[in-house]
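Subject: Sanity check before I submit

Could someone independently write out the structure tokens for this chain? I want to compare against mine line by line before I put it in a report. The sequence has 340 residues.
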Amino acid sequence: MRVAVVIPCYKVKAFVLDVIDSIGPEVERILAVDDCCPEGSADFIEKNVTDSRVRVLRNPVNKGVGGAVMTGYRAALEEGLDIVVKVDGDGQMDPSLIPLFISPIIAGEADYAKGNRFFSAGAVRSMPKVRLFGNAALSFMTKLSSGYWSIFDPTNGYTAIHVRALASIDLDAISERYFFETDMLIRLGDLRAVIIDIPMRAVYGDEVSGLHIRQIFHEFLTKHIKATIRRFTYLYVMRDFNIASLNLIIGSLLMVFGLIFGSIEWIISIHSGVPASTGTVMFAVLPIIAGLQMLLFFLGYDISAEPKRPVQKQAVLSALDPAVAKPDAPSEHTLRKNQI
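---
Independent answer below. Compare away.
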């Protein structure tokens, strides 16, 4: 398969040349995207890089990391490449790991591979504590909003995607800023694509991160809540109404009723000075317990329903080019094997 690497470039002039030089021969095309960089990354790369695989792209205005990657994705689709890897230009991601990211996609086991820096206790120790806490919170929210319960480290930007899955996503709808990586997971969840984590170690050097948990927490929380409601409504009401749907709806109603009724009775008891009767307490507690059990059953069902069949093996409708969405024809080797 033909592999491309997209490198978003914004204030990474000190690192980007080393990143490009470290990309191995398994990559056919390197797409360096200057996201209106004040350091003039595009001109710098064109002046100092002689690798014929490198193609420099320019965004006329700064679109953020997501916008820069989308520019690279569109260029890769136009060139008819098969797998697109995204590597940051700040040196935190080791390009020698690219074969590990593309191998499960080539084998037909996944549509999207992403890095996971939490693969072992030893790897976690090297991570700054603020990033560790922020990623843990974001990972749980992403599990709810995307449906991918087996993945972790949702903001990890080291990714590889099969072009069939990429072409089936509306790239214009993807968030262009720091929610980009998480938004990709949510959109792929809507597509029912198969995603796997690839263990990796991050390198934290002199680069300056523009991601601050306090600044983006409210934005991320709001988007996650909206995405979770949208996913549950589409998947368990519109697409397939089943036993899990009943548990979600009835369990939510019981929980809400129990909490509201119990709160009202508690306030009345405080103001009147008269303790609530045993019957009143039970009438508030039992719906909460029953609702909690039903919601836990629903979560168990949702976890077990994680996508297992790769999109690259399906005939899906493409948002950009219908020809891209055709299932791969069996190779000559496969045909001979089947005949034997």
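---
OP: Matches mine. For the report I'm noting this point. Residues 243-272 form the longest helix (30 residues).
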